[in-house]
Amino acid sequence: MLLELKKVTVSFGGLTAVNNLDLQVDEGMIFAIIGPNGAGKTTILNCISRFYTPCSGQISFKGENLLTKKTHKVLASGISRSFQNVELFSKMTVLDNLLVGLHPSLKSSLLSNAFKTKKNKQEEEAAKEIAFEILELFDLKHHANEEVRNLPFGIQKMIDIGRAIISKPKLLLLDEPVAGMNIEETKKNAELITRLRDEFGITILMIEHDMSLVMNISDRIAVMDFGKKIAEGTVTEVQNNPKVIEAYLGEVQEDVGT
Amino acid sequence: MKIKRLQILFISILLLGYPLLVGFSSYFIYVAGLFIIYAIMAMSLNLLTGFGGQISIGHAAFLAIGAYTTAILTLKLGLPFWLNLPLSGVITAIVGFLIGLPAVRLSGHFLAIATLAFGLAIPEIMLKWEGLTGGFAGLFIEKPSLFSSDTSFYYFTTVIALIITWLILNLLKGNFGRAFVAIRESEIAAEAMGVNVSLYKTLMFSISAFFTGIAGSLYAYFVGFISPHDFNMNISLIVLAMIVLGGLASITGSILGAFILTIIPQVADRFPGFTITITGAALILTILFLPNGLISLFNYKWKRKKTENKQLSLEG
Amino acid sequence: MAGQIIIGGLAAGSLYALAALGLILIFKTSDIVNFAQGEMAMLITFISFTFLTVTKLPYFVSFLLSLVIAFIFGMAVERIFMRPVQKAPILNQIILTFGLYMVFRGVAGIIWGYTPVGFPEALPNKHFNYVGITITINQIFIFVVTTILMLGFYLFFKHTKIGLAMRASSQNIATAKLMGIGVSSVFTRTWGISAILGGIAGILIAPVTFLDPNMMGEVGIKAFAAAILGGFTSLPGAIVGGLLIGVFEGLIAGYVSSELKSVFVFALIILVLYVKPTGILGEKITKKV
Amino acid sequence: MLELKQISAFYGNIQALDRISIQIPEGSIVTLLGANGAGKSSTLKVISQLLPIKSGTMVYKNEDISNLEPNEIVKRRIIHCPENRQVFPKLTVEENLIIGSYLRRDKDQIKKDLSDIFSYFPILKERLKQYASTLSGGEQQMLAIGRALMGNPKVLLLDEPSLGLAPIIVNQIFEIIQEINRKGTSILLVEQNANLALRIADYGYILENGRIGLEGRAEFLRNNDEISKYYLGGKSHAANLY
Amino acid sequence: MRKWLVNSLIMIICLVLAACGGTNSSTTSTKNAKEKSSVKNSQGVTDDEILIGGWVPQSGPAAQWGILAEVYQSYFNKVNADGGVNGRKLKYIAIDDEYQPSKTVAAAKKLVEQEKVFAILGTTGTAHNKAVKPYLTQKGIPVVAVASGDSAFVKPAVKNYFALQTNYDIEARIFSTYANKELKAKSVGIFYQNDDYGIVYRDAAVEELNKLGIKVAAQESYNPTDVDFSAQALSMKKASPDVVFLFASPKPAASFLKEFDKIGGSAERMLTYTSADSTMIDLAGADVMEGVLSTTWVKSLKDKDNPLIKEYVDQISKDIPKQDPNSVFMRSAWAYAQVLVEGLKRSGDNLTWENFIKQMETLKDWDGSLAYNVTYTSDYRYGQTSVKISQFKGGELVDISDVIKYEP
Predict the structure, then answer these.
(1) What ipTM does this complex have?
(2) Residue A97: which of D89, C32, D165, B181 has the closest Cα?
(3) What is the pTM of this model?
(4) What Pfam families does this protein map onto (chain E) (predicted)?
């Protein structure tokens, strides 16, 4: 088991965002968390990437306690993430955005950086090579030196994911990877996510509203509502769970049923 | 990148040839020297504020610490100048680190005011610490024997400035610079990408203070006399104005801003009483009409030319 | 001695608080730190002085007249200079108000010169002695005016529709517009009102600092300090911050060193900000991920 | 009554709306559907003039209102209830409601409207003196709708009132929307949840990438499987799985 | 490519313009200087003009000193109207140094090398003057009436420096002697400005008082920008000295005196000449100022029949009508300019720095200016060390003693 959450509870000023949650993600899986807005999904990601600290419960990754780690140490331990509304460095170029993703693995010192020593140059070159590999993978090479803020939202989302995987994490947290994308882009992204798992061996934990994506590529789905996990299982299991239909798809189900 | 290199190369040739151009007039060399020293300071402030997004309204305090360190080391300990210069930088960097500590918790206006408080406090401490600093009476510093004339010290200053520019450009291009800009753009994402935001913020303050400290040291030697009058809040704000005027997050912009705001008082001093009015009006007009600084004027023209050319070629 | 120091500190502190009110008002509604606030106050004080000496109007008439001019002046500054940078980065706003500060000071110097002149006090100068502590009627007056203004604005914000509109605009500009609030005219009026506050501060401070273009230099900085210490968004915070600074620097001057009193004040600010980054009465800013 | 003709709008360089034409007849509920970023909210912002119109015209009761200030729009009782509730967090519930009637001078009617709102949302009366930030999501949504109703709207622009709410509350809110409509207010409803919206709407527009992809009467849209599969993307696709 | 070309072109234009601006002024002055004169004059002198320069802060914290420049100009107007100095008109250039020593250095270099002035007149700021002293000494340009009473410019005497206003050190000693002899003080409290100005006074006063066996009961200092002096006034009252010396500029002195009066402090108060004029009555009020002692080294306007006073009042009311001619700054500035012009007159047609300095040294107890008894020798550059004691009485300042001369 790669990631395990045990009895995690998070609350903000009296409001319980996540309530006593247990979650287990196995290696090599695409694991989706679904649920209505405000169900506490993003809060879970924020706990795993250590922006929040739960009031109680445990989170372990590869058997290690994750809660003792500081936020900036999470990436080095093999967990990376993307953001719901793309938190890119908007005035930096695409290439530089990706290179920041390599930050923990670049070891040259301040001085060798300032004096541009040979070692530093080599390291930078190597980093750039890796970045270009990623750009190749995402078919974004021609945008390498453009400022991110000038690019369309769909491409920004790709860069956000690219920045997350450049450090070759074991686990990738995706927060609504296809929100705001059209059908074409969604399809492309679905393929990409599967490839990340198959070719790079990255385990994926994602939050998504787009059911076509979720149902097509997930190995396992957890359904959240009001901070609680109300169901978990394979695609078919979840789809046929009456609790899920009632809470999450309630209105729609009634309509389609008639 | 290449264009930036050429710009810098050109500016450096100009700076080195400048004394010839003005017939070794000590006044013109003096003003140019001040400009170069302010340019170093503006670049280091831009590193912190323009690139790193951390506002400092107390940067003159770092200049003061650098200058006084040099003066005190020279006068009290008799250290040679090749030791004083880096030491002034290091000591200022240590102070910068300490100031960076509260900065980790503050942002925006609150950071601005905290640094303002620091900038106001330092000259008063210099004033009070009379035994060491000479209080308001100030301290005289002789130029090092190797560069005893204005012109030779001007050359020395220029070379140091060029080296500092090179170092800052390198830093900005590398891993550290990317992390600084990343912090400015999104602290959250930077943290998620493994940047230790607190550490890097204090680091930014230290580096910026280091270079400003060196500028301070050069200032002490070049002016030959320092007193707390030279490091008040107005200087901090003027240097801040330099980087905004020239263009935030642009090294060429900092140099341009330093140039203009060093020249304005020199031109305006013949209209007694109008100096601050003219400087103030220049700032207001720039902010209102060129919010991205004077550098955007060049970039904009250049970009427009480019698109015009494109259109032409399309028509052709 | 301590009693007298505290009274002196409270008197100085209420000057700082008075000068800070206008700063806070602007920051509260439009998120701008106005470095030119003190200079605007100085200009208005000069205008009032001109009424007093050139046109020989009675004190309170010229006081009120100059406040009318202050209102117009404040609104004009907002319209001409601040409106275009409303959405600009903080730094641009800071530098713009700094530019205004330079121009206002320079223009005042050109028009009225830099020789300090005395300015009449609001009330005939009498002082009281009580158990060896002296206090003047004008010190009490300033303290009362500051408190009344603070309370007045507090009630204004709490209970009037325009006050409510100002608070709404400060929280969410777009939604405030959806309520039919003319947000830009709210900002304009805020600057007008804050110039009035500045004018009142300047006119009451001038007898103490004397009138010249540099009169607000020190008071302006202490007003900033007071505003920051109090939290920058809280009107009662201005009073708390102002009085705290006044008394604190009085005690430092009396018992430690009179030259280092400002240094201690600045150290206090850095310390307070370190412990509570939003000031004593400041509202907590929550960051969203 | 309210008509948008060939409206285009931009965020900086990015085009948000491309020649959109929409009609809201008096007394009707019209819904705008589409994926995230399709331009639904932008359409509402254009109507309330938060987003300036680049080209095209907007006509209300035979008057061109394309170039008015937001407060002029509010004066014409076209009230926009924005996405994500956007209540003023540091104002009390009461103050939030009062600010909704900012431009009105008819004190008696305001009182009556206030009691109407309390009858729709009794919880708001209990929370009257609390800061809006202390309310739950559902309560905030009620407050936002209540606040919009305080403007005594002729046309109410509702942006995703169901967002993040439990189904029971959503049902409640949608019933109230219908109730409001019955009392004579025209409604333009933006929703992601298409089936929900089409259930109460008379007419619907489907937006895609800033353009109108399809429009029609609600029953027509609801029953057209092909269309909903294509334009409503995952939502209906998922629904079809059941 | 084009971008940096544009950039560099603009840079070049700026620099060339700056350079031309500089060379232009220098070529004109050298060209004029070449004209027919039989004697080779020093820079800044032509057949019909003598160029005088100086810096004064006209903005910034000390901008109140900016008035000096206007007085110099006014005096030169008068001299020029009377036909100039030996047929040459006086031209005066003021540079605003904003009270920043680094800018003062630039100003000095500009005046000497670009403007090529003949002499430097009445420049302000102790620190600022000190900052450029090595440079000006090395150049040898005459510096007349440094507007600072610091000993650095007179002790030891520097060949090209001529001080005029009473030395701070000396005034402090005159205060001490007066307190001892006339006021029979047993203890003295000192209120001083914590800068180069106030500290010089304090040190001299403490030394002299110790010599005289008078107790220094309190030393209260303040920073030049302070506005609140209640703590100092309180400490001073607590120490209850017989006499309080105020080594302070007008604003703080007035504030302190008001505060001291308010809390019921009572002592003889002595104020330096910098504040000895009617401004103090305006600022602090006649009640508070009643009985305060001071010294004056420039003649009082009371002596209306004196033609020197008459010409001063007439010219100032014409040129600077806004200001009260009674101002001690303005009377001092007038005296500075008078001494300079006297030196120029005595130099005749031989306007070299060497000769000017020699002629200045011929001034012996010269009483032709607003100052008393101006004297220079090769090792005495104080100008004068004579003061009158004066006192605020009934809303004006009146002299209460004859000229007291102090030998340094």
Answers:
(1) 0.86
(2) B181
(3) 0.88
(4) Peripla_BP_6
